[in-house]
Amino acid sequence: MSTFQVAKCLAKLSKLSSNHSKVLVTSVRNHWNKDHKPGPYPKTESERLAAAKKYGVHPAEYEAYDDDGTGYGDYPKFKAESGDSKDPFYPWDYPELKRNFEEPLHVEFDLIREDRYDVTTKYTPSCKIQYLQFIGVMSGLYLMFWICEHFKCFHAAIPKQYPSDGKTHYTFD
């Protein structure tokens, strides 16, 4: 590339950055792409079909989030499936994330990845039982503390002997 071409590219870049500096800085620093932003909530059947095609989801499987002000728009609603519950021996395109190329992500993908919270695990005790276990353990510890504070126990000991006039407490004979 010649020096003139480099100067021409830099001039174009400076014009672009001066005119659209906020957009340029935002897109470079935050890796924002306007194509990844969800569109408005689909109100008609044709909008719903277009949104399903946009995200690569079969129209029969496409369901958008409710329009409750969360900002999800036309993004598809997927069943939450953690990385721990996916097959580790499947030939994934991105094996560290257990996902394939152009596979749409769950809205809370950053929360339910393999190294985060597992939404598919059903824990044995319910929340009520876990709460009662916690209260029981803490109450037991407090009871032991209270007993040990109010009922002191010591090893038997005689009063300390201090030397006084006229008494021999020890000899070197």
UniProtKB/TrEMBL annotation:
One Pfam family linked to the record: NDUF_B8
Taxonomy, superkingdom: Eukaryota
PANTHER family on file: NADH DEHYDROGENASE [UBIQUINONE] 1 BETA SUBCOMPLEX SUBUNIT 8, MITOCHONDRIAL (PTHR12840:SF1), NADH-UBIQUINONE OXIDOREDUCTASE ASHI SUBUNIT (PTHR12840)
Record protein name field: NADH dehydrogenase [ubiquinone] 1 beta subcomplex subunit 8, mitochondrial
Protein source organism: Cryptolaemus montrouzieri
